[in-house]
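Render this sequence as a predicted structure.
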Amino acid sequence: MSEVVEEHPSLIPVLNRFGIRLGLGEKTALEVCMKHDINIDFFMLMINTFLNENYFPEKKLHGVHLTQIIDYLSKTNQYYVQSQLPNIERHLRPFISQSAPPNEALIHIGKLFDAFKHQLLARIETDENKWFPHIIELTKKQTKTKTLSYHPIPTADLDEPIEALITDIKHIIIKHLTGHYDENLCYAVIFAIHTLYTDIKQNNRIRYRILAPIASGMEKNGAHTLSSREIEVLKQIVKGATNKEIADRLFISLNTVLTHRKNITAKLGIKTTPGLTFYAITNAIISGDEIY
């Protein structure tokens, strides 16, 4: 496991969120997880989703509970607030104040960072006080959707301004910085900003490819239950069948298949096959072993 971390140092804060510290020795991922009493399937789900934007582990999702993902993302938010943001400010403030004469470009960069920080903290507050508690409520069998206090499920486009701001800060420093400034502090700021940007971008895949689709599906399903035929169609979709194959297997017309698919999407609020797969597995509609 140490070789993987050496190749991808960005995994270090991810390990910290699981309570894993450096000094891994020759232990495998399984051995490390056993030592720290961590579910290996969930651990690998987070690691691989973090590293690879094309990764979607259908066969491993059946062992994962949404509260595990929420706990992981809550610790990620704590990392931003307690470590990453202070680390950037620890270098950025001297970077701005120690320039002589006062560097207008640096002052503007400081204002951009303040705007970025404000938006990120606002998102974190929404996570911790609205979105995450809402999802936890959804996981309770006795909870009805109509009684919940918060309904909107965040989408990836809500994070675009946050990613755009931190990207602009890095871009401006590298390409448009002028005047007098401390080069060592400049390098420290760039590295700290890039580290946070990478972490946000990679963890957003976990937020919006895994957590948001299934939460949306659970919310929609609280008011609209799939019919038995729609469940049969959903199973075939998750197994990778084409529309024609579904029609042949269920002895229905192609137009009927398309109608069922449209109804499933409308009821669950999930459009992608990976999202439907996660919904089907976590709601015990199909097991991971049935997917091929």
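Summary. Residues 91 and 101 are 18 Å apart (CA to CA). The chain is about 70% helix and 0% strand.
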